[in-house]
Structure formats: C-alpha cells, structure tokens
C-alpha cells in the first residue's frame, strides 16, 4: 500500500474535493482504498453527458440503447446515495445535470425525487439542479426541500464535466 492510500478517509476526501470531478472519479481505480474512499465521498456530481454519449443523445427516446443508458445513470446515482446512507454518511453536496434540450427526461424525474429525498435525509447542504430538456419546466421540486434543515444552498448548477 502506498503512503497516501493509508491516510484517514477525511484527508482522502479532502484530496478528492480539491480535484476536478472527473479526476476525482478516476482516482477510484487506483486501488481498493481509493475505490472505497470514492464511494464514501460526500460530494456527488452527476452530468448526463458522462453516461450518454453523443451517439446515444441522437437516438430515439424509445430506442433500447437510449433507455439502457438512462438506466445506467439511474443505477449509478441510486447506488451512490444508498451506499452513503447505509454507511451513515452525510451528503455534503448533490449536483445533478440533465442537459439535452431535445431530450425528455420525465422518465428519470421520479428517481430525481427519490435522490433529493435521500440526499435531504442525509443532511445535504448544497443542492444544485440543472434540468434542461423538453419537459424540464414540468418538474416540481419535492416537498422535502422545504423541510430540509441542513440545506444552505439551492440553485442551478454550472456543471460541465462531472462524474
């Protein structure tokens, strides 16, 4: 084991927090220790373009490949939030970007509600949503946002390259 991997999780989280999101995600492949650190990292930034390639974005909304890519995105975010909850860890920041003007993400919105609920229950401090698609204006924030006592920032994020 290298010396850095043996540092306390709080220090490893601080290191990840100083990296661009994409590089922080890449650190999870360095070793088992870094993978565990990544899965307990309290900042979750997700951008659809990291899951949906340009090819996938050009597919029909009912195309099986498009639906499979959406399912991968949903599964990833759900697993990360469940893992944090199960470990009793708080979610410091949750940033979600679904930004394809010609896409309908309404299929994902029930999951977004669940994710916001889980993040809220985990003491989320920063919640940033960027929902741009055909029906983004139809999305209503769940009531748990108003009840969130730990929330210090709610806004639209400026995500471009996140994991």
TrEMBL record:
<dbReference type="InterPro" id="IPR036047">
    <property type="entry name" value="F-box-like_dom_sf"/>
</dbReference>
<dbReference type="InterPro" id="IPR001810">
    <property type="entry name" value="F-box_dom"/>
</dbReference>
<feature type="domain" description="F-box">
    <location>
        <begin position="7"/>
        <end position="47"/>
    </location>
</feature>
<protein>
    <recommendedName>
        <fullName>F-box domain-containing protein</fullName>
    </recommendedName>
</protein>
<dbReference type="Pfam" id="PF00646">
    <property type="entry name" value="F-box"/>
</dbReference>
């Amino acid at each position: 084991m290298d010396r850095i991997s043996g540092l306390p999780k709080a220090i490893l989280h601080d290191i990840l927090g100083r990296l661009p999101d994409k590089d922080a995600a890449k650190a999870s492949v360095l070793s088992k220790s870094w993978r565990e650190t990544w899965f307990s990292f309290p900042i979750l930034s997700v951008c659809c373009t990291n899951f949906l390639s340009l090819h996938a974005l050009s597919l029909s909304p009912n195309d099986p490949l498009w639906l499979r890519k959406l399912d991968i995105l949903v599964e990833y975010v759900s697993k990360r939030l469940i893992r944090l909850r199960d470990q009793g860890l708080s979610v410091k920041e949750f940033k979600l970007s679904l930004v394809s003007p010609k896409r309908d993400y309404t299929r994902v919105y029930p999951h977004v509600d669940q994710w916001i609920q889980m993040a809220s229950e985990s003491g989320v401090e920063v919640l940033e949503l960027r929902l741009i698609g055909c029906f983004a204006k139809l999305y209503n924030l769940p009531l748990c946002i108003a009840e969130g006592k730990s929330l210090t920032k709610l806004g639209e994020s400026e995500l471009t390259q996140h994991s």
